[in-house]
Amino acid sequence: MMDVQRIAIVDPSDSTREPFRNLLLGVESIWLEAECSRYEFFTDVIRQSSPDLAVVSLDSDKNKALQLIQQLTVEFPMMPILAISGRGDGQSILLALRAGAKEFLTAPVVLEELLLAIQRLRGNRNVSEGSAGHSVANTTRGDSMVISVIGSRGGIGCTSIAVNLCANLAQDKNINTALVDLDLALGDADVALDLIPDYTLADVALNIDRLDMQFLRRSLCKHATGLSLLPHPVQLEDVNIIHEDHLGRVIGLLRASYTHLVFDLSKRFTPTDLTAMRLSDVVLLIAQLDLSSLRNVVRILHTMNQDEAMAGKVRVVMNRVGGTDEDITLAKAEETIGQPIYWQIPNDFKTMSVARNSGVPLLMHAPKCKAQLSLMGLANLLTGKTAAEPVKKERKGFFSFR
Ligand SMILES: Nc1ncnc2c1ncn2[C@@H]1O[C@H](COP(=O)(O)OP(=O)(O)OP(=O)(O)O)[C@@H](O)[C@H]1O
Ligand SMILES: [Mg+2]
C-alpha cells in the first residue's frame, strides 16, 4: 500500500467542491477523510478527523476563509493547509500565505499541480517531524521509485529482467508496481506475462489532455502476481502517437498510484527512452560478458555520465553469468567498464526460456530456480532489504552486493 494522505476539504460551493472531490477520489495515494460545506463547521471537522492536510477554498467568502486558515494554523500547527482560489492573483496568494496556508493552487486545480503541492507539503512535514524519509534510491522525488531497464545490445535479457523484477517487487504487500513497456515498436512484455490488454500506451497518449487517474488506472492490465502492465501500442503505426512530453505526464500520474515503476526500454535510445531514463531514479543497464555488450556499456556510460539528469544513476547488471560462451571474466569486465557490477544474474537458459515462452514469470514457473532467486535478490537490493540468504549460501560468491 502507498503512503496515503488523509485530506479534509472545505468549500461551500457545490460547483467547485464536487469537481475537486472527484479529482481527489481518483488518486490512490489520497484518502478523502472529510468534506465540509460550511467554513463555521470546519474546525470541528478537523478536530474529529485529524487529517494530514486541510484544503480551504477561498472563493465563497474570502474573509471567512482567511480567518478560518488563521484559526486552524493556531490550533493545529502541524497540519499543513492548502488554499485554493479561482483568482490566482498575487494579492490572493499573499493573503492566503500570510494567514498561514503553506501552499496555494489556482482553481480549477490541475492534478499534477495538486500532487506536487501535496508532495512538497509532505516533504516539509517529514523534515519538521525529523523523519528519515525513504532509504533507497528514491531520495530525490516523492515516494515512488522509477527504474529504467535498458540493454547494451539486442536480446540481452531486458524484458525478462523487467518482468521478473516487477513480479518480485509486487510480492511485498506494501509495494504497488507498474511495468510500462516503452519498447514501443517491438516490445513483448505482454507476451512474457500472457496478458491481452484492452488498452495500451497509444490510448493513453490519444487521451493525454483529459487524462485522469481513473482513466490511467483503467489502462493498466493487472497480472496474477500483483503487478500492473501498461503495454506498448498494438499497431506499429501508433508508435508515433507517443511523444516524450506525454511520458512526463504519465509518469507524474503513475507516481501517485504506484510505489514502483519499471520501464522496459527499446535499444534505440529514442527521445522516449531518454526521457524515461532522465525521469528515473535508477537505470539498470543490462550487459553480458561478451565483447559487443561490454563495448556498448562503455559507450553508453560515457554518454549518460555527460547528461546531468542521468549521471550517477546507471547500475550495470550482468546477465547470464556462468554461460558457456563467456570469454571475459567479471574482473576484466569491471576493469573495462570502470565501475562495479551492481548485480549478477546467472545463466538459466532452460527455465528462463520455458517461462518466457509460456508467458509465466519465474516466481510462478520455477520459484526456486537460480535466476528467480537472483531476481528476488535484485528486487530486495533495490528496495533496501537484505538479499535472500539462501541465494548467497547456494552459490557462494556468485551473487554480490555493490
Ligand atoms: N538469465 C538468463 N539466463 C538464460 N537465458 C536468459 C536469461 N535472461 C534472458 N534470457 C533469454 O534471453 C533471450 C532474450 O531475452 P529478452 O527477450 O528478455 O531480451 P531483450 O533484451 O528484452 O530482447 P529484445 O532486444 O528483443 O528486446 C530470451 O530467450 C530469454 O529467455
Ligand atoms: Mg525486450
Describe the model.
- It contains 17 helices and 13 strands.
- Helices cover 43% and strands 18% of the residues.
- Helix 2 (39-49) packs parallel to helix 3 (62-75), helix 6 (158-169) crosses helix 16 (370-382) and helix 10 packs parallel to helix 11.
- Mean pLDDT is 88; it is low at 129-142 and 388-402.
- The strands form two sheets. An eight-stranded mixed sheet has the order 8-9-7-10-6-11-12-13, sandwiched between helices. The chain has a five-stranded parallel sheet with strand order 2-1-3-4-5, with helices on both faces.
- The two termini are 29 Å apart.
- The chain is elongated, with a radius of gyration of 24 Å.
- With 402 residues, it is of the alpha/beta class.
- Magnesium ion is lined by residues 158-159, 183, 188.
Give the gist of this structure.
The protein is of the alpha/beta class.
From the structure above, extract its key features.
43% helix, binds adenosine-5'-triphosphate, 17 helices, single chain, disordered C terminus, alpha/beta, binds magnesium ion, 402 residues
The stretches of 5 or more residues where confidence is low (pLDDT under 50) are 129-142, 388-402
Task: Please give the alpha-carbon distance between the first and last residues.
Answer: 29 Å
**How are the strands ordered across the major sheet?**
8-9-7-10-6-11-12-13
- Kindly state the number of beta strands: 13
The molecules bound to the chains, other than polymers, are:
adenosine-5'-triphosphate, magnesium ion
The major β-sheet equals: 8 strands, mixed
The succession of helices and strands, N to C, reads EHEHEHEHEHEHEHHHEEHEHEHEHEHHHH
* Structure annotation, total helices: 17
SS-based structural class?
alpha/beta
Determine Rg (CA atoms, Å). 24 Å
Task: Bin the helical content.
Answer: 40-55%
